[in-house]
Amino acid sequence: MPPPLPESIPATLQELPPKWAHFCLGVESFLVNELGVDMEGKAFLTAFSGGIDSTALLLVLKYISRRNHGHVFALHLDHGLRAESPDEAAAAVALCKAADIPCTAIRRDVQAEALSMGMGIEEAGRHVRYALLEREREKLGAQHIALGHHLDDLCEDVLMRMLRGAGWPGISGMPGIDPDRNLVRPFLLTPKSTLRDFLHDLRVPWSQDASNADQRWKRNRVRHSILPLFVEENQSFTSSVARMWRMGRLDDDFWFRRCQMLQPGPLLAQHALEGAHQAERMRFYKHKLDAMGPGQALADSLFRLDAAWREQRIGAVIQFPGDKTAKIVSEGVVFRVKH
Hints:
Layout (H helix, E strand, L loop, with lengths): L17 H17 L8 E5 L4 H15 L4 E8 L6 H14 L4 E5 L2 H8 L3 H20 L3 E3 L4 H14 L12 E2 L4 E2 L7 H11 L15 H16 L3 H23 L7 E3 H4 L4 H13 L8 H12 L6 E4 L3 E6 L2 E6 L2
Parallel strand pairs: 1-2, 1-4, 2-3, 4-6
Antiparallel strand pairs: 5-6, 7-10, 8-9, 9-10
């Protein structure tokens, strides 16, 4: 059974100990100044599992939203995978009630969903979770879906991207804000230990998910076996990842703005490519391909495309995932999706 709730939970920022009020204001500063979130009068839907991350997120958003005349809602999804999950759902609803935060609890048979969709359980759970969050966000009229990913999660994500062979700036980790999916990650540069201390000092309980220790899942192996080795070799590894994330966001924003200067449509004109550095051309190709829908443009294929353009192999066609093609023509490069 989850631990009991405290007799009372601070209702406002002013009721917090100064240390934790300052912490909450730091999260607000990250949202506003680094992620560009307008807090005034906005509503957040929190993905609330009842664990450390989402419990801390729920409370911090409550404090900073109310001072900005906004609102916070919670959605708890019971995946139906563990015997203790109904108790955790009840505890999540009880905590939200004690914190005066509206909460919706939904139970889904994720194992059955995984079978019907032909996915693994982890992937199916993620698919169901995000679909429900977006549906609830629309119903509530909230502007943002808030996720509890923190700096430790960012470090794991960077290592997993390294294992997959990601390039720059993707290797710098998950975005802090994803406008296309209405997602925001307020804790992305906050260590998990800070969240634990925050809840401990407020005497607010959280649930422990035993599956987080199951090393059959790659993310758990990275968390428990690989990441500690990096930290052992470099005690400042998490800080280094945070700096790399910031540099990655700057580069990503620069290239996005640079690519916005290209003419829209399937043709990447010769005049845009001539005189451009290879790094620019590679970004231009990727920008055009990404705009065509799903399918990751792999670096090796981008290099082949650039070689074909430099050698002016008119008529050469390079294939990309998602049934995308790039064809060298006298006017430049034409990008298509095969139908």
